[in-house]
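Just wondering, does anyone understand what follows?

——
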Amino acid sequence: MAVGLAASPAAFAQVRGAGAEAAAPIVSAIRVEGNQRVEPETVISYMSIRAGERFDPVKLDLSLKALYATGLFGDVQIRAEGNDLVVTVVENPIINRVVLEGNSKLSEEQLTKELQVKPRVIFTRAKVQSDVQRMLELYRRAGRFAATIEPKIVQLPQNRVDLIFEIKEGPNTGVERISFIGNKAFTDGELREEIATRESRWYRFFSSEDNYDPDRMTYDRELLRKFYLTNGYADFRVLSAVADLTPERDAFFITFTVDEGEIYTFGGIDIESRIRDLVPDELRSQLLTLEGETYNAELIEKTIDRLTDAAGNLGYAFIDIRPVLKRDREKHTVSITYQINEAPRVYVERINIQGNVRTLDEVIRREFRLSEGDAFNTAKKERSRQRLQALGFFDKVDVTQVQGSAPDRTVMNVEVQERSTGELQVGAGFSSSEGVVGEVSVRERNLLGRGQDIRISASLSQKRTQFDFGFTEPYFLGRNVAAGIDLFNIDRDYQDEAQYDLRRTGFALRAGFNISEFLRMTTRYTLRQDEITNVGPFASFAVKEAEGQALTSMVGYVLGYDRRDRPQRPTDGYYLFIGQDFAGLGGDVTYIRTTAGANYYYPITSSVVASLSAEGGYIHGLGQNVRLNDRFDVGGQNLRGFKDAGIGPRDAISRDSLGGNIYAIGTAEVSFPVGLPDEYGIRASVFTDFGTLFEVDTAPTVSVLDDSSLRMSAGIGISWDSPFGPIRVDFAQALLKEDYDETQVFRFSFGTKF
């Protein structure tokens, strides 16, 4: 189908000839020809000239352009017949349907979102070519630069067409090689680790980072700059970043040309403040940039953040902290003066929330540490963002501020991007402690958008059968109290450890609330019935003595102080806790149990994390011996190198594990990447575990092996967040142990969800 600007030259000659007369003739009528769907009146309405007006070449030219601009016509001609003006049009066809052929790597839904042409829309060649470019851009972003798209049309009756896009996706355009020119301080291999783009390798089948992406390449330039500026090279520049496509169009050669410059150290560091309450000498403790140390641009940014927080805590928003850098190119030093400009005290005028389609506004607002009318506080703003992110309801949380209705007013804009919070999981796996494991669970962490958490799960293994139900209301009765209930039924095989089976059935009521921003108290009441059955004929008398049922009615609390950077996989900060349980509010069991612990995390580098943890506990029977199933067990996951319940008091004859009333355990560990791409989630660790378990109250007739000596092990571990589920392998050797302890060198666990 021909589409183009065309009009009759003869007609224009006639019109222009008429217009050259002293008195141009008057248009007596305008006739429209060739139109099928468009009414003649509609065509005439777009024209600049009207019947009764004189012929005017300028108006005729404007009329032509206006008719083409409508997109309704593929061809327009205007001619004069006597004193009549005849407009002949060829209407653009209507699209009957749009068909995509040949696409498999990108779905029809992904491509259709980019299309302007749709069924029942007027066909124009410009729109089709624009759509082709949009789809090609999608393929380029997916790493397929060899993709081609050819549009074709099929003529149909009544001036309709089918539009077909024939797509040849081509191969994945990978990155065959990444090279660097001009680098002396760091090798090509070291620099490749700092950028986001990766060279194509067979094992990167789960990643797209080895596909060429121009946006990612721009990001790589910034990553290189940040890396060098962090390591003292204040004059570093990326001179060029070139991507050359191979003749086969299936891969790229990427070359970065850099100018490293010289390494610098920090010179003099000073603070200038024009804010009365911010005294420079009192702010020096916030400085992370120290004279004589290697220049580090990241430390400058962190220092600005700390100074900003200090000002924010005094109620100052929109403060302008500018680091004034003075280079001494001869001495290779950078002196810095942090200039803090004066700013007014600002109050929160309004908090706007956007992006929450499902989650109620009140769920978001209750996590905010600021309210309308409060003095603005930078630290509270950041804490609010952290609390929203910790909910787990959002992929992204942005909290920004703009000028309000007055200079001392600010409007806070909260933009969230919701994620799916419902989970249906079916799992299967294997662990060295429980054998084959199967699990089915249903969970919704944001029920009806109210932030409520409900879960139902069932798991089955060779040694355990467990059913659980839990419900949590995070703001019970409109107060900052998280209340919940748990129902459970557990059947556990302890035949290998102590020749008995345990069935535990009951429920727990709990309530948690914050005492301060980081200090939280959780209280609970538990009612459960334990039943010890299937006691072996050669089991310890202490095990036979515990056979039967016992009802436990118990109240307790846990007090926790959390300063970790994040609850899951923390890399910095610490967590302290202490908890107590009192059993004896009715039931058959009376005791008091106390536990306490601490965890500390320290980032040695951006990817290497050291951690220390310690935990201990004591249980004391009130007027009766502590039952077998209420004592502590140590070994397995909490003391690697030993089997489950591998240490502690043991029957001297049957060697059954009896548990202990007092325990203490600890771990020192360093976790680090193994050199593979970060997207694989593979990390290794070296660790040492240590602990003890002792003291047991049994009948005098039972001969017990019980020693409070310290046990210790050391080993290495590898964890992988695989697409099939988490995998953990530990190799540990017991270094300190007693003769009756049961050791375990290899521990493996694997699970998957689908």
